[in-house]
Amino acid sequence: MLNTLLVAAAERLLNTALELDPSFATSLEKLQHQVLAVEIRDWQQTFALTYTGKSFMLFNNYQEQADCHISASIATLSELKDPSVLTRLIRQEALDLHGNLNVAQAYSQSFSNLDIDWPEQLSRYLGDAGAQQLMQHCQSVKSRSQQLSKVLKSTATELLQDELKVTIHPLEMAQFKAHTRELKQRTAQLEQRINQLLAR
Amino acid sequence: MKESQQKTTDFGYKTVAREEKASMVADVFHSVAAKYDIMNDLMSFGIHRLWKRQAIACSGVRKGHRVLDLAGGTGDLTAKFSQLVGDTGQVILGDINDSMLKVGRDKLRDLGLVSNIEYVQMNAEALPFPDNSIDVITIAFGLRNVTDKDAALRSMYRILKPGGRLLILEFSKTDSEALSKIYDFYSFNLLPTMGKLVANDSESYRYLAESIRMHPDQETLKSMMEDAGFEQTSYQNMTGGIVALHRGFKY
Ligand SMILES: C[S@@+](CC[C@H](N)C(=O)[O-])C[C@H]1O[C@@H](n2cnc3c(N)ncnc32)[C@H](O)[C@@H]1O
To answer: What start-end ranges are recorded for coiled-coil regions in this protein (chain A) (predicted)?
Structure first.
């Protein structure tokens, strides 16, 4: 129950952020109804985050199929600061990733782009000095989450480069195929245009 | 003897004719409708929100689903489901009591939730839907008010799609003696007094406390769900068993 209470508080915080930074909602638009689940092994708890188009919902005790599912210990999750370790972690089974990697990337991207005038917002409650101190703390959290987003971004390429010791999820494969089809189409279009130009 | 063959049934601690229970329950909720939400927060110290949160996390409701929030009253669950199912889904707020439905409709409209919610007056014992037509049914703090619970469970089973699930959130039995003592004192002394002060209606809140005690315990409800056809039934206790969340699937 305590967990549920904390998660409810965190959800409220996220939704406040949504109100304070209008561009945050815009950056989340593509993610509507996508569920990101993070399983923290040491706690045997799975948390799930989804954006409904109106607000965030955050759950603990989540047992459903998510669009992207990450499972690791807290220690492992914090190791992610260094992008190069990710494939190693997966190979050592310290970290599991199922589903659509883009979902995780996109969520973390939106969070790291979060741009709220915190000192302004906070000084209303804390006074200027308090706001200043809290800000310094938040800056360090932010830079950490930016790092995480970088890590996730480079993961896609690494997964492919790493001799495919990591299995590709069917969803990723489907997405890859879709991208390839699109690329093929574009190439064809380009070819046509070049031919037209040459014909002139 | 099967519930449905008996001539009388419980209304809190009283015994009343089966035909009378529904209208007596209706009176209770007509009289509490306007103050229902505020009393919920007061009576449970806001904890009902956490119980409901857990029900939503276990519901598996996703985009495009058709969800029935049965005995949905003032629509707390409907509000969340409406967001989760999105434009392509639908939530039906079903309740036997039009006063409660009206309070729910006004509240949800004020929250800006309209496009995918339907409000339908219905009796849980005979649900007005075709077979296999609903993805998820929830009934939160509603089942104990239903006269023929077996009929209600069968009706829910019938309208669920294969693969669909039912969630029942309801007061239940705590196995901690200390907790149970505090809880008894709270429900039979403080609760009716609070009901009197806030809603000027101690009788309804006495019914609430009594009906909770008359409701089947965890194992009984689980086997009732199985009798109705549900599979993979399970429950989790919350707040020491004061409330339990039951879940069952139709395959
Ligand atoms: C305690 S309220 C719960 C409301 C809401 N689900 C919540 O958790 O806040 C119980 C509701 O059950 C409804 N109810 C009672 N008997 C019913 C029946 N046979 N069929 C459908 N709804 C019923 C009442 O009208 C009332 O709105």
So the answer is: 173-200
Residue B89 half-sphere exposure toward CB, CA atoms < 13 A: 23
Q: Which of A96, A99, A98, A37 is nearest to A62 (CA)?
A: A37
Q: Which ipTM value was assigned to this complex? A: 0.83
Q: Chain-centre distance of CA A114, in angstroms?
A: 13
- Chain A partners of B62 at a C-beta cutoff of 8 Å? 33, 35, 64
Give the predicted TM-score (pTM) of the model: 0.79
B135: number of CA atoms within 13 Å, CB side? 15
pLDDT reported for residue B209: 85
A54 has a pLDDT exceeding 60 = yes
**According to the per-residue pLDDT averaged within each range, which of A75-84, B44-53, B171-180, B222-231 is highest?**
B222-231
Q: Which residue has the higher pLDDT, A58 or A186?
A: A58
Q: Could you tell me if residue B163 is left (phi over 0), alpha (psi between -120 and 50 degrees) or otherwise beta?
A: left
Encoded tokens for B214: 């008359």
Instruction: Provide, as residue numbers in chain A, all residues whose Cβ is less than 8 Å from the Cβ of B60.
Output: 64
Residue B60 has pLDDT above 80, yes or no: yes
Look at residue B142 and tell me whether its pLDDT is greater than 70.
yes
The answer to whether residue A53 neighbours chain B at the CB level (below 8 Å) is yes
- Identify whether residues A187 and A102 lie together within a single domain: no
Strands A68-72 and A95-99: antiparallel
- Asked if B142 and B208 count as a contact pair (C-beta separation under 8 A), the reply is no
Give tens-digit pLDDT for A124-158.
666 777 777 777 777 777 777 777 767 776 665 56
- Given pLDDT bands bounded at 50, 70 and 90, which one contains residue B1? very low
Helix (H) or strand (E) holding B23: helix B18-32
A192, part of any domain: yes
Do the Cβ atoms of A50 and B84 come within 8 Å?
A: yes
Contact B97, B72 (CB under 8 A): no
CA–CA min distance B60, chain A (Å): 6
Would you say residue A155 lies in a domain?
A: no
Give chain B's domains with CATH numbers: 3-175+205-249 (3.40.50.150)
Strand partners, A99: A68
